[in-house]
Amino acid sequence: MKRLLGFLLLAAACVGCGNTNRPYTVAFMPKLVDIPYFKACQRGAEEAAKELDLALVYDGTTKADKTLQADLIKQWAASGKYDCLAVACNDPDVVGTALAKARSRGLTVVTYDADARPDARQFFVNMATYDAVAHAMVDAMAEELGDEGGQVGLLTSWVNAPNQSEWAKRIKSYAKEKYPRLTILDEEEHGEDRAAGVTKAKAMIQKNKELKGIIGLTSVAVPAAAEAVRQEGKKGQIKVTGVSTPRDMRDYLKDDTVKTVILWNPVDLGYLTVHVCDKVRKGEMPENGTIQAGRLKDVKVKDREVLLGEPMKFTKENVDQYDF
Amino acid sequence: VKPRLPTLLRGMPLASAAVILVLTVTLVPAFRNAAYWETLAQDSFPVAVLALALAPIILTGGIDLSVRSVALFSGVVAGFLFHDLGWPAGCALAAGIGVGALVGLLNGGLVSVGVLPLVATLATRELFRGLAAAVSGKEPVRGFGLEAYWEARWLGVPVQVYGVLLLAGLTYVVVHHTWVGRALFALGDNERAARFAGLPVRRLKLGLYVWSGLVAGLAGAAVVLKNDVAHPDAEGGLELLAIACVVLGGVRITGGYGHVGGVLLGVVTVCVLVAGLLSIDSRWRDLATGAVLVAVAIGNEAAARWATRLDLKTD
């Protein structure tokens, strides 16, 4: 028994050692780990960390769950292992409260991809303005439908999710103003779950006889909607577009179930985020103005919001050039 | 007197809980940090009080799966009273707790007229989550301005710890030192016999579910304070975590056997284990959680069988 205890103490000591004199460490947290989109962000973040000689830890929750993420943030902040948190938030408030707590412990807090409430973080790295992304999605859908009108459904993760709720609002108002022939339906939720997304999209197709298109607001929603259209045998009759990754969408683009997918470059997003973390640390980050972030030149900053650029379009023709 | 081996074996659930606790705390470096414990103690308040309210129910062989939904619903109602009717935040939260008790009345009513607790509370679990979403609308209510209370300390220890200990003390006295407690065990052992013995089975059940509704309301108020927002969909899996605490604390899920002290140990163990496993790489986290729980289940079951066999031999 004594020997066992001794062994345990030794093991504990080994796990605990090497804590002194560590380099400046950035914890880079996705909404959930293990999906291609955030792995692409991770690659960019690692590239920047190497350039800037920072330590980077990529980790998070295995589910896109606001409470799990908030608890993890609070524990990381309390653990004393990190100097800076870069977080893609699952919820502006629940996660925001945890981030505010981390800030009060002296950590640098930067959000990327999805924002928390603004008082909870120092900077938000936005991939493209809400307006630009929402308009790109509606324009792509309207172009595919041509002069035809009809109902367009929205498939989202959660109605309250930070980006998705902002996009949905803008999709509705922009479509009303510019394409009155389109009727945008209220959002259906899939909870970042692919199978649930397919089920919801099928239900949407069966319930709304006038449905002409589905816009997916997450990287999981678009392939789920495309899969539902395929399974229901409605290819060509119901158009699908939205924000997703080339990797998730390659098959559906190749067989023409989907014509256009909207996204930005997530590798650049991760890269820019870590550069922003470094600039905050060095005190070189302006609240308004432009910054030079490594290979990304003249990046705009407005009211503590950093803008990566304009959204990109992926089609059958260019999808093979991207591997995220 | 030397304790008999079967008695020792029956203590196996508590022993495995204690082993997990000690191993996690020694192996995870973060636990050497006082701030880590404080955060954990604060954030574990909802699950701890729910486990303490569920323990007596599980002792009778019942279950309440609706506790998370009731907690969220009470929180959202409090948010509504605060934001839309302009009540002071404290009053709104107190009213939310009252709403929890009212909701418990529905659960208790269903169960005492003979609906299976699993069925009744599975139904109300959906019902109240839906109601929470409906009351909340599109924008959850935020800015209660009560952070100071959530962050409060007494003698350097977060107030949440005292709250849990107080509730545990109360539950302990009622369960192990009053006729109500004896009736609970009797009910869990054999409901028919309890009925024939003249115990007020219906009223007892009604009381239990009202109590768990009230405590769920308290947990809901705590979740609001913790997040500073009345969110209709926070704390995913809270009810299952609370049940895990009770079961890991040695309460038999079929009723009739268990101890409040064990439940408290179960709470600490589960919360520490979950927090400890957060510091390993996410790829292994779910696997590790599952593996630990399977190991505990096998160990406890083996010990229980061994004890029964020994008992049969000596009899």
The whole-angstrom Rg of chain B is 20 Å
Global shape of chain A: elongated
Oligomeric description of these chains: heterodimer
β-strand amount of chain B: under 5%
Most strands sheet of chain B: 2 strands, antiparallel
| Poorly predicted residue ranges of chain B | none
Strand order, sheet with most strands of chain A:
2-1-3-4-5-13-12-11
Can you write the helix and strand succession of chain B as a string? HHHHHHHEHEEHHHHEHHH
Count of discrete alpha- or pi-helical segments spanning 4 or more residues of chain B: 15
Please provide the count of β strands of chain A. Answer: 14
Describe this structure in words.
- The complex is a heterodimer of chains A (324) and B (315).
- Chain A is α/β, with parallel strands linked by helices and 324 residues long.
- Chain A is 44% helix and 21% strand.
- In chain A, the strands form three sheets. Chain A has an eight-stranded mixed sheet with strand order 2-1-3-4-5-13-12-11, sandwiched between helices. Chain A has a four-stranded parallel sheet with strand order 7-6-8-9, sandwiched between helices. Chain A has a two-stranded antiparallel sheet with strand order 10-14.
- In chain A, strand 6, helix 6 and strand 7 (182-189) form a beta-alpha-beta unit.
- In chain A, helix 3 (66-79) runs parallel beside helix 4 (94-104).
- Chain A is elongated.
- The termini of chain A are far apart.
- The model of chain A is unreliable at 7-19 (pLDDT under 50).
- Chain B has a two-stranded antiparallel sheet with strand order 1-4. Chain B has a two-stranded antiparallel sheet with strand order 2-3.
- Chain B is mostly helical and 315 residues long.
- The two termini of chain B are 19 Å apart.
- Chain B has helices at 5-10, 12-27, 34-43, 45-59, 67-83, 89-112, 117-136, 147-150, 159-177, 179-189, 191-196, 201-227, 238-248, 260-277, 282-314; strands spanning 141-142, 153-154, 157-158, 229-230.
- In chain B, helix 2 (12-27) packs antiparallel against helix 15 and helix 4 crosses helix 13.
- Chain A binds chain B through residues 8-9, 11-12, 15-16, 19, 33-34, 59-63, 65-68, 70-72, 74-75, 77-81, 91, 93-94, 97, 105, 117, 158-160, 165, and chain B through 23, 26-30, 32-33, 35-36, 38-40, 43, 138-140, 142, 226-229, 231, 233-236, 275, 278-279, 281-283, 285-286.
